[in-house]
Amino acid sequence: MKVLIVDDNNTNLRLLTSMVQKLPGCSPIPFSSPADALAAMPDLEFDVAILDYMMPVYNGVEFLTEMLHFDRYAGVPVIFVTADHELTTRMDALNAGAIDFLTKPVDFQEFKARVQNIAALAEARRRHSESIGANGAGNENAVREHECEIIQRITLAAGYKDPQAAQQRMRVAAYSEAIARAAGLPEPFCRDIRLAAPLFDNTTALASDTALLKSGRMTEADFRRRSNGGEAGAGGSSLLELAAEIHRTYRERFDGQGYPSRLKGDSIPQAGRIVAIAASFDALISERQFKQAWPFEKAADYVRGKADSHFDPKLIAAFGTALEDIRKIAFADTVPMGTEAA
Question: Is 134 domain-assigned?
């Protein structure tokens, strides 16, 4: 795995280069000048880019913007290294296409975990693209395998930053599966919503899932591809497409007063309607900096009281049927990721 490193501080550049050299199978391509790195493009070949945020001539965001003018780098994961903790700085980088952050001084163990995971994510995405383009028997299974790996890698990256947020995503996914099953939906759909739902919220953590779901340059084309012509979420169709569908629609309301598209009733995809219930319930029973956790029964009653306005009444009935399973999930020490085994 080739890793581009751009940092105008020679001490930092040597440190990052040394860290990359210690990673199995990784080789660094260091540049102390962002202008020199851009001048070498598009002939440079690399799989991951690590960029300093504060640099002369081109800062990290400006460098990334220029780099992405070359189509061959559109899918390359980019990690920013910064001493700036300001949210606006990080959002600027995310909007430019960054996938993760390392904070100075860089800890080697954190660096190793994040870079190896993101390198594996890049490899999984490459194999996914190849599988989509390939012909022959077994291609559908290969696509699903790679999509599962992509989702798991993204969720793992989120856990590095905020383990509580990662567990929240796992709970929402497990609640969603329980609601879908209680609603009598097909088993492949129940399995798939558990697999895809961890990526429902791309705003709670500045992690790789933010860029994956937000950045059209990186993934919109992948989301639009299908491994067959079936409905999103049905057996054999794209898990990444289902994840994107959930992300786009779980904030819609059944009465049409939600966002971003003010969809109403059955025009909201079923997966989005299910995750809306699961995410709202988990938000109520979870403690946040600005609020105390609600008691389980109070939260359940509140959610059920929003049938017909916020939520699909038929799915609210399924939520009630699944409540004991949901209680077990809510009070479990840890909730695992979904698997292909139903």
Answer: no
Q: Which element (helix H / strand E) includes 103?
A: strand 100-103
Cβ proximity of 260 and 248 under 8 Å: yes
Backbone angles phi, psi at 262, to 5 degrees: 50, 40
Angle value at C-alpha 165, between 163 and 167, nearest 5 degrees:
70
Range of the domain at 277: 163-330
Determine if the pTM surpasses 0.70: no
The domain spanning residue 65 has which CATH number? 3.40.50.2300
CA dist 75 and 219 (Å) reads 8
Q: Which of 143, 199, 138, 133 is nearest to 338 (CA)?
A: 199
φ, ψ for residue 315, nearest 5 deg: -75, -30
> Coil, strand, or helix at residue 56?
coil
Does residue 276 contact residue 250 with C-beta atoms inside 8 Å?
yes
- Say whether both 168 and 91 belong to one domain: no
Residues 6+ away with beta carbon under 8 Å from 91: 206
Domains: count for the chain? 2
Q: Please tell me the predicted confidence (pLDDT) of residue 132.
A: 61
Which of 149-158, 259-268, 330-339 is the least confident region?
149-158
* Residues across the chain: 342
Residue 215: C-alpha distances to residues 95, 221, 244 (Å)? 8, 10, 11
pLDDT tens figures, 55-113: 988 999 999 999 999 988 987 889 999 887 666 777 777 777 777 788 888 989 889 88
Helix/strand/coil for 49: strand
Q: Which two tokens stand for residue 300?
A: 């359940």
Q: Cα Rg for the chain, rounded, in angstroms? A: 21
